[in-house]
Amino acid sequence: MILRFGYVSTALSLWEASPSRTMTFTNWKKQNSIDRKDKLYHLTEQNLKNTIRILHYNIAHGIDLYRMSSSLVPLATHPEVKWDFVTPFYEVFKEIGTLVHNNNLRVSFHPNQFTLFTSPQEHITANAIIDMTYHYEMLEAMGLHKDANINIHVGGAYGNKQEAIKRFNENFPKLEQAIRFQTTLENDDKTYTAKETLEVCEEQGVPFVFDYHHHWVNPGEEQFEELLPRIFATWERTGKAPKFHLSSPKSEKLIRAHADYVNLEFALPFIKALKAFGRSADIMIEAKAKDKAALKLVEELGKLRGFKRVDGGAIEI
């Protein structure tokens, strides 16, 4: 079996390579129409070209797994700004998609925590649909809309978890089917446990992204090892290995915050559970040190008996 490891958004090893440069709406309002357009174009071009730099870095270092920044296009979903970001950057988006395709990379998006479908307020759901559509349109522009995933959380409980889950099941189908088909759900560190999130995934036919750190903080009553057969089953229709998230606590007090690197001792029970299950998986490292953390963990695992490093970001067991 193969475990592949990746990281989120920015390759810290590259100089000035942020793919998330942005501007505030307040700043945008202060400028005339020509300056507004120039600034949006400049920032978007920088973000997309830095994404290309990062993908080349990943290819060179044998890292097949990567989460793209949700902030590639500044103010793309703001109701007063909304602009056509695809047409002027058509070729650059296609270049990203071609790089991903030709090198068998696995990329994804993860909209922020405000993109949720459990709220009793209709405008929250409407905004979630707008945000999910924005991410899907970027994937369409890249030609990756049938391949890459958009990962979100179930959302808030609003004092009644069962009612909130019912609202999710009512609101989520308001998304276009094509977007729903690329969506994955992840357990969170405060509200929805792995089992509860898995049940929503099974109800909606959506793959489940299990976050080990979140489960450690918010475990519910279940051992995650017992859920692995059902977790893997949610991915069967995709033909892809399941995706997992891994990070470790920043400190004994800040247990929900992510440390700069992944603590090997903290991660090993999770890794050994996957080893015992015996099937390949992809693991997104959500540590603050980004690419450096992913490569360091793979290096440490490769030194353990029974683990063989077969690429910069991959381990064979």
Automatic annotation (TrEMBL):
Keywords: DNA damage, DNA excision, DNA repair, Endonuclease, Hydrolase, Nuclease. The keyword Transit peptide does not apply. Pfam families: UvdE. One of its GO terms (biological process) is response to UV. InterPro entries: UvdE, UvdE_bac, Xyl_isomerase-like_sf. It is an enzyme of class 3 (hydrolase). It comes from the Bacteria. GO terms for molecular function: endonuclease activity; hydrolase activity. Its EC number is 3.-.-.-. HAMAP family: UV_endonuclease. Component in a DNA repair pathway. Removal of UV LIGHT damaged nucleotides. Recognizes pyrimidine dimers and cleave a phosphodiester bond immediately 5' to the lesion. Belongs to the uve1/UvsE family. NCBIfam families: uvde (TIGR00629). This is UV DNA damage endonuclease. The lineage of its organism: Bacteria, Bacillati, Bacillota, Bacilli, Bacillales. The gene is uvsE.
